[in-house]
Amino acid sequence: MNKQLIKAIESLEFEKGVSKDRLIAAVETALAAAVSRDIDSTPRNIEVKIDPESGEISIYEVRKVVDVVSEPDFEIAASKVKKLPAEALLEGDLVKIPREVKDFGRIAAQIAKQVIMQKVREAEKEAVQSEYGDRVGEMVTGLVIRSEPAGTVLDLGRAEGMIFRRDKLPQERFRYGDRVCAYVAEVAERGSRAQVILSRTHPGLVRRLFESAVAEVGSGIVEIKDIERIAGERTKMSVMSHDESIDAVGACVGVRGARVQTVIRELKGELIDIVNWDEKPENYIRNALVPAKVLSVALDKDRKTARVVVPDGDFSQAVGRHWQNVSLAGKLTGYSLQVLKESLAREEDGRRLEALEHFKELLIKEVGFDKKNLEMLEKSGLLSIETIAAKTPDELARLLDIKMKQARTAVLCAQGRMRDDKATQKKSDRGTKANSSGKS
């Protein structure tokens, strides 16, 4: 058994990368614990030594040499040391007494097998964490080796990676031996093992694929600023160039679309929109809504919303299939986008102007404002029902240099008009729904 143990340890050292010394030390510790329990019910300080060449196992009971014994199970009187067998070893103030254990071969075989398997698992776990812990966020390639209820397992070389069902593209089916590119999402602990969690749906995979396919992106000349993705259907990506002579979008698309097509094929036909990033939100939103033409963009930076007007014929392109285009454009730019047809926007603007004129008349007749007050509000950009309704009477009084009573009346008037407009809108919406259901 001794020679077999050493051969097994040396084989594991070669295959799994677990050092021979580490395995031997682990087996010695485990055997010592087992022998201590096996000798008798009395606690013993047992030490086991394994010769790394021959595999010979030596068992010792270790006691401390003292003048006066207070713990008989762990100490020995100095006067008795000379009476010990010649095989006893004296090391400093410790004496190691050889022991024999009945049926030790069976115990050793069982313990060695358990400890070696445990250490191999620990070593594999450490190897996976060491190699892939620093590779989170990178792209790796592996071969499909099996399918499980939870997902697909890839052979990455010295480790296995798992692509859970939720992290696969809806349209792809893996077969044994398929070569698959995936994004390293995390290295998770699963009991005594470490598992590399991979993803095919993460936006980071698109970034890594373009870094691989486009030299300018890989070198950093072209920078990918933002990526938003509906995995398996559509991706929208914004880019910018750090070299004025290089067109960022053109570099990513490639001659006749060769570069972007490489990425699209890897993503099983997923559509990819590449747009120019712009530091001005208005321009960025225009770019993000390609291929639609944008007529105007009105921003509300505080609320992070934008009203976008497009030609009637471009509306379907602007919103996209199942509203994917406008949804991805909004996420890409960080703004909630309201896309309107040009005709509808004109109607809304007309109604808004008409409502504003009525509101001006109301401020003059019922609140007592004059033209000077209205001009001051207009210059301040506050001449609207919404902005006056949001002001406090104190703020409005200071701004227009009017009495508090008059300012309070103006604010209440604006708030009342807003409530009336909302009620009218609700009735209109209910009427539209009723007409639609009646037609159907």
Task: Characterise the protein shown here.
With 440 residues, the protein is α+β, with helices and mostly antiparallel strands. It folds into 4 domains: 2-122, N Utilization Substance Protein A, Chain:P, domain 4, CATH 3.30.1480; 136-199, OB fold (Dihydrolipoamide Acetyltransferase, E2P) (Beta Barrel), CATH 2.40.50.140; 278-354, K homology (KH) domain (GMP Synthetase, Chain A, domain 3), CATH 3.30.300; 368-439, DNA polymerase, domain 1, CATH 1.10.150. The protein is 46% helix and 24% strand. The chain contains 15 helices and 16 strands. It has helices at 2-16, 20-39, 104-132, 203-213, 215-219, 248-253, 258-266, 281-288, 315-319, 324-333, 342-367, 371-379, 385-390, 393-400, 404-439; strands at residues 46-50, 57-66, 75-77, 89-91, 94-98, 139-147, 151-155, 160-164, 179-190, 193-199, 222-230, 234-241, 271-276, 296-300, 305-310, 336-341. Strands 1, 2, 3, 4 and 5 form a 5-stranded mixed beta sheet that branches. Strands 6-7-8-10-9 form a 5-stranded mixed barrel. A 3-stranded mixed beta sheet has the order 11-12-13, with helices on both faces. A hairpin with a 3-residue loop joins strand 6 and strand 7 (151-155). Helix 1 (2-16) packs parallel to helix 3 (104-132), helix 8 runs antiparallel to helix 10 (324-333) and helix 14 packs across helix 15 (404-439).
